[in-house]
C-alpha cells in the first residue's frame, strides 16, 4: 500500500478527465422495478455496499431517503445509486474497509471505477405507480432489472412493470430474489408463471436461465429477444456474483455522445432551493443533448413557467456525482447552480428544461400513438389522459384524431378503429395520429420525444411528430 500515493500523483491529470468520460460513455443506467416485496432496495443496497443483508432490512436502510421509508420498508421516491467496477470487472466495495459503517460517497466511487452502473431504485407499491412510470420515462435507462419474489408468483404489478419497460423498448433481465430457504415448488411456480408472462403476445421475450458465466456471454447480444433469468439471494449471496458479472458485461445501448453537437438541453428532475454556500437555486437532472461550459458568462434560460415564459439566468457551477466540473455533456446526470432571485425561485418546478438559445414552449403537440392491447379502453375526441414525455408529466386532452393509413406500411388496416357518429374511436391495438393539448400549462416538447399516456394504468405509447404553429 505504500506505493499507491506516488502512483496517484503521476497520473492525476488523465484521471481527472476520465472521470467525466466514465460518467458519460462508460456509465450504464439500469432501472430496478418489481412488486412491492420483491426486495429492490435491498438488492441495490447489497450490490452497492457489497455487504450481505441480514434478512431484516439492513441493506435497504443504507440507501433509503426518507424516514417513513425506513420505518415502513416501502420505497416511495425514485433514487439512483452508483455501482463501480474496476477494469477487471471486480466491483468496488461501497463501504470503507477501515470505517465499516461509513458509506463511500459518489465522487469516491466515480474516481475509483472504470465502469459505472447507475442503479435506479423505484417504488413497487401500486399507490406510487405514477412515480415509477415517471422514473422509467425520465430515467433514460439502458436496461431494466425486473425483480420477482421467488416465494410468491408474479402479481399484476409485475406485469405492469414488464409492459412499461417493453413499451419504452428497454431490454429486461428477470431476477428471482429471496431464493434462500424458498421451497422448491414455490420457486418453480413463480418461474412457470413468469415464463408465461414473458411469452405472452404483448411482451414476446424468450426466457433464458443463467447458471454460468458462459450463459451471460450467450445472452448479451440477444437481449432484445431474450429475457435472462437469474436466481439470487441477498442474505446468502447466492447468484450475486453472476448478477454483477451480468451488469459489468452489459453493452451500452443508448449512444448519448451522438447528441453532443445539438443545442444544449437539460431536463430538470429535482430542485434544491436553499443549498448552503450557493446563492440561488440548484437543479439536478439529466443532460439530454449538447454541452455547456458553466461560468459567470454562461447565460441560460430555465422554464417554461406557468405562463409559458422562460427565466433568463446564469449557470454558475456544475457538479457530476458531487465532483465540481466546468463542462457537462450529453448523457450525464448533473447538478447546475443557477443565480435566481427569491421570487424567481418560487416559479421553479420539476419537469422544466434549461436551454441555451431560442426557448419555446407549447400547449399542444401532434403525436403518432399506438394503443396497447390489454384492458378495454376506447379513445375518442376530448379523451383525457396523463401524459409522460421524458421528464414532463401533465394531463392532456385529445383534441383531434385521425387514423394512420397502415396499408402503405404493409400493416393490416386498423380494423378496430371505427368511425362512429361522434367521430373516430380508438380501440386497443390501433394506431392513430392525435393532437394533444395540455390541460394546465405549456411545456417544452420537441419532435422525436417518446411519450406514454395513461389513465390509471398504462394505455398507449407514441412518438411526437410535430408541434402546430
SSE order and pairing:
Layout: H1 4-10, H2 12-24, E1 27-34, H3 40-49, H4 58-61, H5 67-72, E2 79-85, H6 106-112, E3 115-121, H7 129-138, E4 143-149, H8 156-167, E5 172-177, H9 184-199, E6 206-209, H10 213-220, E7 226-231, H11 240-249, E8 265-272, E9 281-289, E10 291-293, E11 299-303, E12 311-320, E13 323-325, E14 327-329, E15 333-339, H12 342-345, E16 353-355, E17 364-371, E18 384-389, E19 392-403, E20 418-420, E21 423-425, E22 431-438, E23 450-455, E24 457-466
Helix pairs in contact: 10-11
Descriptive notes:
- This protein has 469 residues and is α+β, with helices and mostly antiparallel strands.
- The chain is 23% helix and 32% strand.
- The chain is built from 12 helices and 24 strands.
- It has a 7-stranded mixed β-sheet with strand order 2-3-1-4-5-7-6, with helices on both faces. The protein has a 6-stranded antiparallel beta barrel with strand order 8-9-15-12-11-16. It has a 6-stranded antiparallel barrel with strand order 17-22-19-18-23-24.
- The radius of gyration is 23 Å and the shape is globular.
